[in-house]
Amino acid sequence: MTACRNCGGQTRLSHNATIMGKHPVDYVVCTCCQYLQVVDPHWLEQAYAESINLSDTGLVSRNINLSRSVLISLFAVHGVGKIRNSRYLDYGGGYGLFVRLMRDIGLDFYWHDPFSENLFSRGFERSGGQYDGFVAFEVLEHLEFPGRFFEEVFQQTDLLICSTELYGDSPPPTAEWDYYALSHGQHIGFFNSSTLRFIASKYQLDHASDGRGFHIFSRDRLPQCLILLVKALRFMRIDRMISRAFTSKTLSDHAMMVELESQAKVK
């Protein structure tokens, strides 16, 4: 049986399915870290002909909701003072909508995505150096080798806020879990709570999770009951109050981009 692409452990056959209506594939689960993965995802170039799936009708609302959760999470972990002097990276940022939302609030966010065009946050692409936090939403299930991702991330930051839908104690049948995303073929690896604990232990991280789709990893100790705190503050719409502590970058970014456009025309 194939080795686990997350930890190198032994795997066992879970089930099989057909990807994109034409690629028969086996799903195997690691006996060590419980990472559920497809065997030999050879169709990825075809799957990424379009970076954003036609079926992703929740893209805008998801980014708006996540912007609220991230603002509250950063407030709980870093506090307003540190946030003002920090820069953050959206890894797998898609069209750049999330980065634009966070910069509109006033946070210094940047974009990175090798598979997508940056439409909404041009001029704020990833640069070198360290970051005070990464976010990676709907990224983990796309990774062929998750371990390499975590190694890269935690060479440049001490904090990762991410989302991916967890499966339960055992892999669900394909007919009962839409997250397999058989129609577009981009989801090739899946996590459960045991996988998250394994990753946290392997890379010496503290972690918090809502047990469904929202997860935080940190080299520093996270506040107790962090997820419950985030949920409570979000329910109370405290994000509106937190956002008042920052000055929106909408106008300053506009002025910066106008200057860049002027310089480009002169050249």
Automatic annotation (TrEMBL):
Task: Spell out the Pfam families in the cross-references.
Answer: Methyltransf_23 (PF13489)
InterPro entries per record:
SAM-dependent_MTases_sf (IPR029063)
Q: Does the keyword Membrane apply?
A: no
Q: Which GO terms describe its biological process?
A: methylation
Molecular function terms from GO: methyltransferase activity
Q: Which UniProt keywords apply?
A: Methyltransferase, Transferase
Q: What is this protein called?
A: Methyltransferase domain-containing protein
Q: Which organism is it from?
A: Seongchinamella unica
